[in-house]
């Protein structure tokens, strides 16, 4: 070895690192925290521990109440949603019924006004069998009846001797007749009904 070579002390190179210089004594932070907690518990008095337990229990009770309040809020919101949905369904059904009733009423009003037209056509056919317009009137009347049939409109035409139905018959006169007393003597004008609704009662005379 030359005089310029620097000597290295092998024992110094292998010397252990000081724990304080490494910044730790081999204990983790979690272990230090646990040991610190143990130390505080050992140092605490019975009253202090009791206070700590009461505090923890109070916090737990507060948390439980908070959860219950949230559950109640959720239940209330779900109940409101259910009511709103039910209200909407009821409103929808009510609106649909009203629209259907309006359509039916409009149809009934229209048919009611047209029935007089049909009566006039029928009278025209019965008055002049040789008129030139008869074929046209017959064709019009047939088309008219076809439309009424499509709208579920049927004639009320009771026969002589039938019982009087106050809901479907309008008594015009009481007359002498060969028919049994208080039965229909003659049909004066046909009535009409749409489904179960009477649009116009049949006008009749009743036997005395």
Automatic annotation (TrEMBL):
Q: By its UniProt entry, which Pfam families does this protein fall under?
A: GrpE
GO BP terms: namely: protein folding
Region of interest (Disordered), ranges: 1-36, 59-81
A cellular-component GO term for this protein? cytoplasm
**Keywords carried by this UniProt record:** Chaperone, Cytoplasm, Stress response
User: Could you name the domain of life of the organism this protein comes from?
Assistant: Archaea
Q: Which GO terms describe its molecular function?
A: adenyl-nucleotide exchange factor activity; protein homodimerization activity; protein-folding chaperone binding; unfolded protein binding
Subcellular location per the Swiss-Prot or TrEMBL entry: Cytoplasm
Q: Where is the composition biased (Acidic residues)?
A: 1-35
Compositional bias segments (type: Basic and acidic residues): 59-68
SUBUNIT field: Homodimer.
Family to which the UniProt record says this protein belongs: Belongs to the GrpE family.
Job description of the protein: Participates actively in the response to hyperosmotic and heat shock by preventing the aggregation of stress-denatured proteins, in association with DnaK and GrpE. It is the nucleotide exchange factor for DnaK and may function as a thermosensor. Unfolded proteins bind initially to DnaJ; upon interaction with the DnaJ-bound protein, DnaK hydrolyzes its bound ATP, resulting in the formation of a stable complex. GrpE releases ADP from DnaK; ATP binding to DnaK triggers the release of the substrate protein, thus completing the reaction cycle.
State the protein's name. Protein GrpE
Q: Tell me the name of the encoding gene.
A: grpE
């Amino acid at each position: 070895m030359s005089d310029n070579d620097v000597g290295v002390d092998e024992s110094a190179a292998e010397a252990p690192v000081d724990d304080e210089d490494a910044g730790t004594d081999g204990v983790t932070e979690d272990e230090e925290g646990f040991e610190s907690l143990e130390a505080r518990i050992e140092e605490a008095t019975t009253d202090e521990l009791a206070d700590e337990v009461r505090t923890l229990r109070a916090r737990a009770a507060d948390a439980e109440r908070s959860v219950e309040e949230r559950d109640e809020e959720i239940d209330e919101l779900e109940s409101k949603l259910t009511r709103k949905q039910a209200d909407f369904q009821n409103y929808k059904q009510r609106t649909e019924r009203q629209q259907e009733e309006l359509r039916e009423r409009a149809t009934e009003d229209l048919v009611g006004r047209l029935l007089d037209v049909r009566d006039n056509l029928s009278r025209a056919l019965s008055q002049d069998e040789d008129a030139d317009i008869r074929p046209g009137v017959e064709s019009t009347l047939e088309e008219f009846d076809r439309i009424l049939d499509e709208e579920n409109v049927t004639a009320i035409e009771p026969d002589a001797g039938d019982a009087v139905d106050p809901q479907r018959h309008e008594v015009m006169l009481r007359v002498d007749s060969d028919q049994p007393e208080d039965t229909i003597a003659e049909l004066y004008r046909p009535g009409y009904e749409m489904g179960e609704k009477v649009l116009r009662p049949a006008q009749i005379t009743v036997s005395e």
